[in-house]
Each structure stands twice: as structure tokens, then as C-alpha cells.
Amino acid sequence: MAFSVNEFRQQLSAGGARPSLFEVELTAPAALTNTTALNNFKFFCKIAQLPESTFGVVEVPYFGRKVKVAGDRVFNELSLTIINDEDYEIYNAHERWMHNIALHQQETQMRAAELGADDYLGSAVIRQFAKTGEVIKQINVVNMFPTTLGAVDLSWETTDTIMEFAVTYQYDWWESDQSGGGQSTSGLNINISL
């Protein structure tokens, strides 16, 4: 088969999806005071990803060979990079969020246990846009909370850049229109075309 640039271009729908066309909308838990700081989160979230999920593998020995069976689904952590403003609003909101989970000075006392899961679990919506502005992919991240509030580098030599920091979240699962949108798939007939 001869190489054809024109055939390749015809197959590349709308010139391909662009990784820079996205936004992340973050919903804070109910117990987090002053959540208005997170209203502008979609403007300051600089780097995100559509989260990964994988299956574990169970190896079952049978007649001298191992048969592989799909194991449990694993949802890996979500990392976001956020631009910091001079008010430190988003940074401080995450600091308060983590404070609601565990205090700095008393590691044995989990405040989350006192408040309940609904008071420290948040959610996020990650939207990927087409060049026309329509949403082409949406991921809903369910029951998330920050586990790492990244270090903020300070330096006298760094002058022409805006400060940023990373936050790592754990969550129970993510869902999209392709994964059932969070609805039960029992009894659902799913056809996959390749």
C-alpha cells in the first residue's frame, strides 16, 4: 500500500483532538468553608489528564500453565497542576480541605471520622472540548479527596513565570458516557465495535 498524506488527513477527524482544550470543574465537600475560592478553579487548572483505570490480573494455574482472568478494576490517582494567584485562594482551600481530614498537630485524630465521608469527599468534572467549543469527552470523578498538596518552589532567580503547584487526589471511581455514566450495567447488553 502506497503512503498517502491525503488519505491520512481524511481519516484524522477535524484535525485531531487538542490536549489544550479542556477544563476541570471542582466541587468541594460540604464541610469546607469558603468554597467560593474553587469557583474559578477551571481558569487556574493548567495541567490535567483523563484518568487512567486498569484491571488487575488473577493467574489461575491449570495443567502447567497459567490462565489469566480479569481481576478487580483499579482507579489510579489523579494529579492536577494549578496556577497560583497572589491571594493563594485555591492553595488555601486545599490546605483547609486536608485539615478537615487530619490535623497537623494530632495525626492520631482523624477529623474526617468526626465529620463523616460526605464532609470531606468532593468531586470533579473533566471536560475535553472540540475546536468548535462542544464537549467531546466528559469524565466525572467521584468521591475524591486530596492526598498530596505539592511543594511550591520559591527562588530569587525565577522572575518571568507564574507560581504553580500540584495536587494529587485519590477517588473511588470515574465514569463517562461510555462507562455507563454511573448507572448499573447489570442486565445491560454492551456492544463494542472495533
Explained architecture:
This protein has 194 residues and is an alpha+beta fold. It has helices at residues 5-11, 41-44, 89-101, 111-115, and strands at residues 22-27, 45-47, 53-62, 65-75, 78-83, 122-129, 135-149, 164-170, 173-175. The strands form two sheets. Strands 1, 2, 5, 6, 7, 8 and 9 form a seven-stranded antiparallel sheet that branches. Mean pLDDT is 83; it is low at 182-194.
Provide a concise account of the structure shown.
With 194 residues, the chain is an alpha+beta fold.
List the main descriptive attributes of the protein structure presented here.
194 residues, 4 helices, alpha+beta, 9 strands
- Give a short account of the largest sheet: 7 strands, antiparallel
Q: Count all strands and give the number.
A: 9
The ordered H/E elements are HEHEEEEHHEEEE
Strand content: 35-45%
Structural class, by secondary structure, is alpha+beta
Query: Helix proportion of residues, in percent?
Result: 10-25%
Give the CA-CA distance, first to last residue: 22 Å
User: Which word captures the global form?
Assistant: globular
| Mean pLDDT rating | 83
Q: Low-confidence segments, ≥5 residues, pLDDT <50?
A: 182-194
Query: So how many helices?
Result: 4
Taking Cα atoms only, what radius of gyration do you get, to the nearest Å? 21 Å
